[in-house]
Amino acid sequence: MTKSEELFKRRKAVVADGVGIFTPATIVKAEGATFIDADGKKYIDFAGGIGVLNAGHCPPEVVKAVQEQAAELMHACFHIGTYEPYIELCEKLVAIFPHGNHTKVMLTNTGAESVENAVKIARQATGKGGIICFTDAFHGRSLMALSLTSKIDYKIGCGPFASEVYRIQYPNYYRYNDGLDEAAFVEREIARFKESLRNMAAPDNVAAVIIELVQGEGGFVVAPKKYVQALREICTQHNIVLIIDEVQSGFGRTGAWGAYLHYGITPDISTWAKSLGSGLPIGAVIGKAEVMDKAVAGTIGGTYLGNPVACAAAIATLKYMEKIDINAKGRHVGEIIRKRFIALQKSCPAVGDVRGLGGMMAMELVQENNSGKPDADLCKELMSACIEKGLLLVSAGTHKNIIRVLSPLVITDEELNSGLDIIEGELTRLLANRSTEKQTV
Ligand code: PMP
């Protein structure tokens, strides 16, 4: 039995089955964009711990800051004792992400917690209850976050869900264009949204709209700019808080600090986590001070939120990201992937769509018969084949048919191209095998 097999055997015995296994990889040690498994095999990492490692595995500056902070103060609880790393991190986030004239922040541990708190703040700020969210959205696994999440696989047997959650179709041009050109499609989707405030939830009852501008788990679907700008106007008009969920799209992934910066809009509230702490659990809710301060003292917070060691990791991560220009890296990585995926699409009808923003790039795998039907089997086979070859890859999408790249953005061109070579080679091989099988049948 290999050491990896042994680990899985031990895992099976004591870890609850509900804690999903998305890949057969084991991990012992990691650096930059690569890691070593329990048997000493080296991998290129295209998963990045699901978008957490934009600054890479174990950046030395971050490791040092964590070690130093751990030796000074590991915990205080910010409600009980005020400490500087929490404040310094908030100052840094306010400087990078101004939300209007005066911006305030609360720190959290995770993306789901950021979403939960954003909703609580929006409700207190507006005195209203309803929340509008989107199909194929992912906002986390706690009760409100899961209620806002769309894909039913995450929700099996977990209800009843939070009430006053309304869901509208995400403006996914590839899936729902019905032959319209993009401009006409966007007009139709804006009209659909406006109509929903008549036939789904009255604006007087809607506290917030929450949207991912590039859907993460949904498969890197990019919301059209005009649609988002219209959403911004509608929210302002009706005193609805616009919450942009940047948990997966933040910190350089789209080639900017946040996806919203591509859209020429300012959210009322934005939610963050993942790459902020290079792996230490930390998230943030950032918002206009006049909205954030409507939450009554004591209604938001918790024992561990903004833990000093996690804050030190986040401050060091942000400084490191500034130093290496993480946004330029995001754009660079994205350009390479886009070119390679588009070339693959030209030769391969199973690649139905190539899309994304900056370094947040994905390809959608569909059946080769031009029906556009999702091909989840192909995606699964491709992931397994790539892992065999030393490339860790994760899928996405309600139909599990989308290959997304969430590699550290510090990946070298050589590592990135080697990973893309593996995807290309294995996809071509799998499709060739399929056509041989068909011929023999
Ligand atoms: N929002 C988005 C957009 C996400 O991608 C995720 C995680 N995939 C979450 C929220 C939840 O984050 P966490 O797993 O840290 O709770």
What's the helix and strand layout?
Elements: H1 3-14, E1 29-31, E2 34-36, E3 42-45, H2 48-51, H3 60-72, H4 84-96, E4 103-108, H5 111-126, E5 130-134, H6 143-148, E6 165-168, H7 173-176, H8 182-199, E7 206-211, H9 225-237, E8 241-245, E9 269-272, E10 283-288, H10 289-292, H11 308-324, H12 326-347, E11 351-357, E12 360-365, H13 376-388, E13 391-392, E14 394-396, E15 402-404, H14 413-440
This protein binds 4'-deoxy-4'-aminopyridoxal-5'-phosphate.
Q: Which descriptors would you attach to this protein?
A:
441 residues; alpha/beta; 15% strand; binds 4'-deoxy-4'-aminopyridoxal-5'-phosphate
Structure in words:
Helices cover 41% and strands 15% of the residues. The strands form 3 sheets. It has a 7-stranded mixed beta sheet, sandwiched between helices. A 4-stranded mixed beta sheet has the order 1-2-3-13. A 4-stranded antiparallel beta sheet has the order 11-12-15-14, covered by helices on one side. It has helices at residues 3-14, 48-51, 60-72, 84-96, 111-126, 143-148, 173-176, 182-199, 225-237, 289-292, 308-324, 326-347, 376-388, 413-440; strands spanning 29-31, 34-36, 42-45, 103-108, 130-134, 165-168, 206-211, 241-245, 269-272, 283-288, 351-357, 360-365, 391-392, 394-396, 402-404. By secondary structure, the protein is an alpha/beta fold. The chain contains 14 helices and 15 strands. The protein starts with a helix and ends with a helix. It is globular. Helix 11 (308-324) crosses helix 12 (326-347). Strand 1 and strand 2 (34-36) form a beta hairpin. Residues 50, 110-112, 115, 138-140, 212, 216-217, 245, 247-248, 273 line the site of 4'-deoxy-4'-aminopyridoxal-5'-phosphate.
